[in-house]
Amino acid sequence: AKSRRVSFRLEETNTLAIQGLAGASDTLAAALYYIDFSMTVMQAGVSGLNFHDSWCSAYSPIVFPSLCLPRFAELGSCPDMCGEDVPPMITAPFYGMLFVQTAVAGLPAMLLDGTVLVEAQPIGDDNGDNERDAQGGNGSTAELPRVKGYSFVAHGKHELRIVLVRKNGDGPLPVVLEVQGSYGQGDLILLTGPSWTSKMPDITFGGQTVSQDGELEGIRASQLIEPEELGKEESSATRYTLILPAASAAMLTVFPIGDTQA
Fold first, then answer.
1. Contact yes or no for 154/108 (Cβ under 8 A)
2. If DSSP codes are grouped into helix, strand and coil, which group holds residue 16?
């Protein structure tokens, strides 16, 4: 498509084929997959993608239990309330789409040049084998990376958004970000829940939940992350250290120091 100078759009995708699988496609893990997969195809140059859904499939961000088809129940792809006469319901994958929508609001440009370096610190070991993910590639060890990072510049480079997706593991994970340039205090919001298999209403985004009519409820909660400016030897970079819970994604928003338009 690129050689022909035409855009490429992925027309149909989701977590598992044939309507998904209850207990997997309707959990927080699926919401995190939505985020990671969306960011990955952006890196590849895909202009857009469509997440397939249907009336009452496990992978549908919005389900209509009263319209469930019996054959879907036989496949084990229907949510628990399928077939009941209840209103439409928001499910866990909706949070993944909401997160992506927030991250790309205003159509920011994705950075692929290593401006942001993501380093997951080792937990409970001292072998020094940190796992690194640089923008534009995994850079992981032989095992899957524990966290993946993506970054965007918005509003004419007056705003930097760094997206982190936890890939595996239990317990809190210390993460260090090194950003080229001088940046100020960061605003961190989390998408998280008690476990990878959490469902509604135990999932929160920025401390808020999504009601069944699609409205955010509760008070927005964020963390202020203080920067550590590095010296000339580190090429005028800024470091941020944060804790990423298990089963979570995060977005850190920072602004250049001295930017009057921030």
1. yes
2. coil
